[in-house]
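for the recovery benchmark. tokens below, seq after
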């Protein structure tokens, strides 16, 4: 894979240098993420916080391009390790010295499209889900296994597929973590990873996302898809290093037409079940691998980070000559900053997307390289009322070469794509009632996406919610506009134990 050898060598040199110079002390805690983003588990190392850009949390990846654990800024509501309805039950101590902690939930969720879509079923989701999680704690290590058993008649097949999340069983987590020195630890296995500073916009978070879950009304926990990875965390007084190695490429659970219709450029129209996306996914372990790395440090109240990634476009970023969706090679280099400002929290993030298979931009079958940038601010405008906003922009490089190579009849992308977001969260009734609205608006594409929701905690076990996914756009070839007939409303009832 392009860049993998150089990356592994560079990472090894950095790790060796940090381990040699580090004191046997624990890294300085980082400031918490913006409201809504889940805090990391005690077993996780310290680290800072959601579509990479929209077009196209460490825990629960819109098609490529939608645009933030240790103590890291929290993910938007619902994202992160913890499942709503987690148990208050006491851990079970056994004579072996191990501690077992069990929890989970049972949930029913039902949704309907608000308008007819000839390419999809009228029911957007009709899901019964059982989530089970077991934590195992020992003096020198800890582990977790978490899985979902589910049934949804909206889909036509129920054979489990752990890569795509399809089927009656979804293995969410199966990992073990332990320390290898006073200032370094390892977490290995299936895990949910996240970093970066965006709120439901991802630039340097190149861990997989589940866009189908996001658009059909599942809990935001399920936007983050699992990784099969080995993660190394090294803490020093100078800087902290996180490296995640994924031996086999983990793609996004991208929109393919099975549950959400989309714009098909080859057909020149919207499509769905009648034209399910067929993809050539890199699948050779230890050859089609990924490297994620981050250097981060907190200086006073300011959180700084630099990022790197070597792998592939996470959602299809091109096409094969035979017309199948492809995942070209991709390198990403970026940085972020988060800091208190005027009574709130400000953040900024940057990323350079190096499309390694087409650096000149002349290949119409491969995405061009891009520059991506976001800036955000969050503030509590009244007691229990929080308002947050972001500005996000994508700049396509070599746009002239792209236009010259574009096949006739295919709608052209703009050189710049702008997106504004706003999140309003209002906690009421002793914070048992949560009213939230998240909105995306693109002035360049002239389309929008609204995510209103109301969640009520009935008691210590029962939680009810209603919400919607509302897409607006007159042009079916724009990112949000293509989903206009996928607009849906949903309701859920969950019992946690």
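predicted aa per position
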């Amino acid at each position: 894979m392009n860049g993998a050898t150089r990356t592994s060598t560079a990472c090894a040199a950095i790790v060796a240098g940090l381990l040699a110079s580090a004191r046997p002390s624990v890294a300085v805690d980082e400031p918490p993420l913006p409201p809504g983003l889940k805090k990391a588990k005690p077993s996780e190392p310290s680290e800072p916080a959601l579509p990479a850009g929209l077009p196209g949390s460490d825990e629960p990846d819109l098609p490529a391009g939608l645009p933030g654990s240790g103590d890291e800024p929290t993910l938007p509501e619902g994202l992160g390790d913890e499942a709503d309805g987690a148990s208050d039950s006491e851990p079970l101590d056994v004579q072996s010295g191990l501690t077992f902690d069990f929890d989970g939930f049972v949930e029913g969720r039902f949704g309907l499209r608000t308008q007819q879509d000839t390419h999809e079923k009228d029911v957007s989701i009709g899901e019964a889900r059982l989530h089970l999680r077991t934590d195992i704690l020992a003096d020198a290590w800890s582990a977790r296994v978490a899985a979902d058993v589910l049934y949804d008649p909206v889909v036509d097949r129920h054979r489990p597929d752990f890569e795509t999340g399809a089927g009656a069983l979804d293995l969410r987590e199966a990992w073990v973590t332990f320390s290898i020195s006073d200032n370094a630890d390892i977490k290995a296995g299936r895990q949910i990873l996240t970093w970066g500073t965006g709120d439901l916009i991802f630039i340097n978070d190149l861990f997989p996302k589940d866009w189908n879950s996001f658009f059909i009304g599942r809990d935001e926990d399920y936007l983050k898809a699992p990784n099969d990875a080995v993660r190394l965390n090294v803490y020093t007084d100078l800087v902290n290093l996180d490296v995640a190695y994924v031996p086999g490429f983990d793609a996004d659970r991208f929109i393919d037409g099975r549950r959400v219709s989309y714009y098909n450029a080859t057909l020149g129209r919207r499509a769905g079940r009648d034209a399910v996306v067929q993809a050539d996914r890199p699948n050779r372990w230890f050859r089609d691998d990924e490297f994620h790395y981050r250097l981060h440090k907190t200086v006073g109240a300011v959180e700084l980070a630099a990022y790197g990634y070597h792998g592939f476009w996470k959602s299809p970023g091109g096409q094969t000559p035979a017309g199948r969706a492809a995942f070209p090679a991709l390198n990403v280099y970026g940085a972020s900053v988060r800091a208190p400002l005027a009574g709130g929290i400000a953040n900024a993030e940057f990323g350079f997307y190096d499309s390694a298979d087409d650096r000149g931009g002349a290949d119409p079958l491969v995405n061009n390289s891009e520059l991506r940038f976001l800036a955000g601010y969050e503030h509590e405008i009244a007691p229990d009322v929080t308002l947050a906003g972001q500005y996000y922009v994508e700049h396509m490089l070599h746009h002239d070469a792209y236009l010259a190579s574009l096949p006739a009849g295919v709608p052209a992308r703009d050189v710049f794509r702008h997106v504004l977001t706003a999140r309003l969260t209002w906690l009421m009734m002793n914070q048992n009632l949560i009213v939230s609205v998240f909105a995306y608006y693109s002035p360049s594409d002239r389309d929008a996406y609204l995510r209103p929701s109301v969640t009520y905690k009935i008691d210590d076990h029962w939680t009810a919610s209603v919400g919607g996914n509302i897409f607006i756009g007159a042009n079916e070839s724009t990112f949000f506009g293509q989903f206009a007939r996928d607009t849906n409303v949903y309701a859920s009832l969950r019992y946690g134990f």
